[in-house]
Design brief:
Elements (H helix, E strand, L loop, with lengths): L1 H7 L6 E3 L5 H14 L12 E3 L2 E3 L1 H13 L6 H23 L6 H26 L4 H15 L14 H12 L4 H8 L6
Antiparallel strand pairs: 1-2, 2-3
Helix pairs in contact: 3-4
Length: 194
């Protein structure tokens, strides 16, 4: 949080947790609910945060926690603290962004609208798939058809990233003279994955 305050020049936000008395009940309910659920779905909790007077719905904390759990992390106090901290930082930046002229730029508004629409479309598709599950044999059939269309030829692509054509000509000459591509890629390529 200090880093965020330092880079934005904004004062440290005032964060107020709400409804602390419900936390033990919510933890128990969440544990029971997660045991019964097969898919991780964001569930709003009863408590929320207040950042600089603005309420941040608890559902956002749950959204971040569920995303982390989907990536393999365990739901615990440390994860929830990280989620709350991330939301506080996000809210501070959001408040600053809303006050800035960037929020009125047409390109930003179009992108924000598109992102909201994408979220709605994704939710609709997820709901549709839950209501209309696709059988594994149908998936296999579609895969086999696509595989047939693509053909059996496989291509392995390798590259060496260099800064200039002169360097590329030198490396190409070394390969033509019997130099090993892999060794040259490891020693001269500017791409760290080479």
């Amino acid at each position: 949080m200090r880093f965020l305050t330092k880079i934005t020049g904004l004062p440290a936000p005032k964060v107020t947790p709400a409804s602390p008395g419900l936390r033990p009940f919510l933890a128990f309910f969440t544990l029971i609910g997660l045991t019964l659920m097969t898919a991780v779905v964001a569930q709003p909790a009863a408590s929320s945060l207040t950042v600089n007077g603005q309420t941040v719905p608890a559902g956002k904390v749950e959204l971040l926690v569920n995303a982390a759990m989907g990536a393999g992390q365990k739901d615990n106090a440390a994860l929830r603290a990280q989620a709350r901290e991330a939301l506080v930082q996000h809210e501070v930046l959001l408040q600053a962004a809303k006050k800035s002229p960037v929020s009125q730029e047409a390109a930003v508004q179009v992108q924000a609208q598109y992102n909201a629409e994408t979220t709605l479309v994704r939710a609709y598709l997820q709901q549709w798939l839950r209501q209309n599950p696709i059988a594994s044999d149908a998936v296999q059939k579609a895969y086999d058809e696509l595989k047939t269309q693509m053909g059996a030829q496989e291509v392995q692509i390798r590259h060496i990233l260099l800064a200039s054509l002169d360097e590329a000509a030198k490396v190409q000459a070394q390969i033509a003279a019997g130099g090993k591509f892999e060794d040259l890629a490891a020693s001269v390529s500017q791409d760290p994955s080479s």
